[in-house]
What we know:
Elements: E1 2-6, E2 13-21, H1 25-32, E3 44-49, E4 56-65, E5 76-83, H2 85-96, E6 101-103, H3 108-115, H4 121-132, H5 136-146, H6 149-173, H7 183-202, H8 207-213, E7 215-220, H9 227-235, E8 253-259, E9 262-268, H10 278-293, E10 296-302, H11 308-315, E11 320-325, H12 336-339, E12 344-345, H13 354-369, H14 380-397, H15 405-423, H16 429-436
Amino acid sequence: xxxxxxxxxxxxxxxxxxxxxxxxxxxxxxxxxxxxxxxxxxxxxxxxxxxxxxxxxxxxxxxxxxxxxxxxxxxxxxxxxxxxxxxxxxxxxxxxxxxxxxxxxxxxxxxxxxxxxxxxxxxxxxxxxxxxxxxxxxxxxxxxxxxxxxxxxxxxxxxxxxxxxxxxxxxxxxxxxxxxxxxxxxxxxxxxxxxxxxxxxxxxxxxxxxxxxxxxxxxxxxxxxxxxxxxxxxxxxxxxxxxxxxxxxxxxxxxxxxxxxxxxxxxxxxxxxxxxxxxxxxxxxxxxxxxxxxxxxxxxxxxxxxxxxxxxxxxxxxxxxxxxxxxxxxxxxxxxxxxxxxxxxxxxxxxxxxxxxxxxxxxxxxxxxxxxxxxxxxxxxxxxxxxxxxxxxxxxxxxxxxxxxxxxxxxxxxxxxxxxxxxxxxxxxxxxxxxxxxxxxxx
Length: 443
């Protein structure tokens, strides 16, 4: 089957790229253009005609990539045409009339590249992450994974386990032979070393997943403290309803933001107070849960609050930034009461000290999560396979007698398999589907 799609994204643009991959690619070029066939990997200006009427559709650049030297590993062609919706639709309509040609599914070109051994699964995932990146830190993480450093580490562990497995199987197959006396000791030591390295990697505070999905920030505080106003200010748009009526926000309102290069998911929550309203009480429970699950809490109170200390003592933690809002009211407050909380005094109305708050958010996230150590895990499936690998290695370590060597070999075999599944030695179609369905059409 030959697939095609608009790879440059929908909407009005100067140039649109229509990508085609499959055995009919060469035939499609012959049917849409006249004259000499384009030379491989050389941009060639050609008139593109309607497949039935020979009516001119557009004039554009043709790039011909004969397989296997192409992105997908198949014969592939790209039509670079003017970014008119009418032009794109007419070219796609012509291609669709050719036998065994259909519109590509999301991520199908990259899926073909993986299946044809052009890239491994980690690189395929990082391509999707790079396309979806919205901040510099996300782009850098995707590029690092694409460079292959993570793959080298996983393959190193896998090769080490394969070597251990060969020694275990040698002991099973040749129990009476003169194998090295220290073979069992070396097997145990090598296994322990690999297990320790994997466990250390797992103790990464899930930074890779946090960068990819966005750090979670919860704005919490009593009613009418300015939580929704702060969310709207950070978002530069009216995300949440702002009202002087206490208890306006009852559900959790979330928005994805780029705060000085850091990808974050900011949640505005219900004001925390004693309430008899069942709906508001449920909102307060959700607010407290968001605060517990968040990577960082912005605890906001206002200068008019008189009972702030009890509230702060109940919710304050190392992951909190204390903010005192409405300083524009010029109310005299005893700042000594706040001193132990190291607060930031702001006025959302007058946009006072908001930049100081943003700097503090960035510093909190950077100091807690971002360091110079290489990030290996960027998805939950990576973590699950590594955890299963450790589980089977720990089972292997419990095997003491030669009678248990058959079971020990199976433990190593399963641990090796889980490492292989990270880089793409998989045989389960559902895993591939869950990964490539997140891609955009045309990639």
